[in-house]
Every structure is written in structure tokens, then in C-alpha cells.
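Supplementary Methods, section 5.1.

A reviewer requested that the exact input to the structure prediction be made available. We therefore reproduce it here, unchanged from the version used in the analyses.
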Amino acid sequence: MFIPMSAGCIRWLTVAVCSLGVIFPVAAADHTKSASLPASSSVAKKECTDQPVSEWLSEEEFKLLIRHRGYKNFKFKIVYNSCYEIYGMDAQDQLIEAYFNPVNAKLNRLNTIK
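The structure derived from this sequence is encoded cell-by-cell as follows.
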């Protein structure tokens, strides 16, 4: 599905976010058709930590910490075998994609949809 920018939509990862908060899924094959995020919002550094997994915060501890920082309605995953990543809303209700160091929960990269 290709969502034109003229339709009041912006592309973010695998969804198109449109005016009035409408979100449409976008097929993976369509990623080459539209690039609405600036080049500076590329993926996080490939490595958030080189510490062994035994040193990482547990998923539950990490989720509790970021909830206290104001992130909400998020999806969590591990990426690059060295980063915790979330997709969700920040304290200002903006749609975000954020990468964290899994050892200390330090923010490594934040992409915000404005």
C-alpha cells in the first residue's frame, strides 16, 4: 500500500500515520516507495552494549524504568543482539521509536514523529 504525502500522511517504519491519528499498515515491499523520515533518523548505532546478556536489565525492570520516564503504549523488542527497542508514545503523546542500552537503560537513539 502506498500512502501519498499529499493525503496528509507520513510514513513511519511499517505504518503510515495520517491526520486525525489514523494509522495504516504498510507492506514491507513498499518501503522503497516512500521515505518521509529525514536521513538523520536512520537506525541506531548497531551496538548499544558489548556487555554479556547476564549483565542486562531484565525485560520487566527495563519496562518499569521507561514507564517511569513517561513512555506508554509501547511494544518492546531486542535488536542487533545488543539494544532494547521500543515503539510507542512519549510523555508528550508523540509517536516514538527509541533504542536503549540494555545494561543501564541509557537512551541511545530517539526518533520522533512530529
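The first strand starts at residue 9 and ends at 12. These observations are discussed further in the main text.
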